[in-house]
Amino acid sequence: MKKLLCALLLTLIVACGARAEKLEGVWGMKFGSAVGAVHQLLTGRGAKLLCEYGYQPNYREALYSVNFFGREGTLLLRFSKKGLFLARFAFFRKGDLERAQKVAASRAQNSEKKYAAFTSHYNELNSMLTRKYGPASSELEENGVVSGARWEAGVFDRRAITLYESRSLSVNDTVLSYEDLSRR
To answer: Burial, 22: exposed, middle or buried (Cβ in 10 Å; 0-12, 13-18, 19+)?
Structure first.
């Protein structure tokens, strides 16, 4: 019985560890990287630094204009004394919102849940993330409407990817975040 329990525990630890390795960062930026190294990598990819500042002792933020796999938008980076811990992309609206609302209404008829009107950026990124990391760990709801998805990995879900639609007055609607909470 002890051997079976130990084997099961070892299998679980290996499985969790293998999944955690997949979420080491994004777009070549590894969690824990220093500001200078990330800046050099991003400028090499054509990103333009819009501003950089400190907001608390040992914490910095940088905002870039980026083209992420054909999607125009902005990238917010957060650094602590442990290096990069958050990369949040906000993509400029693409596609017809009216069409997306019709698709959401059609989807709601086939489900008990209500879904947001997902733009083409959201749908494309959701498919890409599902292919790479498997099905989302959870759906994100706002006011009873599913508006996003979350992939979690690592010990106690310390690393995560969050993808959601945000209706606002700005043109930034699809938001994609990569985060390592252990470096906060």
So the answer is: middle
